[in-house]
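Support request from a user on the community tier.

User writes: "When I paste my structure tokens into the form, the page sometimes reloads and wipes my input. The last time it worked, I copied everything first. Here is what I submitted, just in case something in the input itself triggers the reload:"
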């Protein structure tokens, strides 16, 4: 987790440096739109859009994993309770 956080901060720093060094104005044409903006806005917007897409695609898997872990934990707790309630066999008491 810590390594991921460090790598993320380094990538954010690199994108920020790149964006501030290339802050020239430009026209962005997409389908029927023509927007006059700076390059840094396009770089940050694209980066944020990519992060949002990754988050949207990752959330269903994380939720499914969370519910699966809860289900398995309940099952494990049930098995542990059953094993505690079982009478010990005569061979184990010797």
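"...and here is what came back when it finally went through:"
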């Amino acid at each position: 987790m810590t390594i991921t956080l460090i790598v993320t901060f380094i990538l954010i720093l690199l994108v920020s440096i790149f964006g501030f060094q290339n802050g020239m104005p430009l026209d962005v044409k997409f389908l029927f739109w023509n927007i006059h903006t700076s390059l840094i806005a396009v770089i940050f917007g694209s980066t944020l859009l990519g992060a949002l897409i990754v988050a949207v695609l990752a959330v269903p898997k994380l939720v499914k994993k969370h519910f699966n872990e809860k289900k398995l934990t309940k099952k494990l707790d049930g098995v542990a309770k059953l094993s505690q309630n079982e009478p010990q066999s005569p061979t184990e008491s010797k």
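Agent notes: The reload is a front-end session timeout and is unrelated to the input. The first strand starts at residue 25 and ends at 30. Residues 39-85 form the longest helix (47 residues). Escalated to web team.
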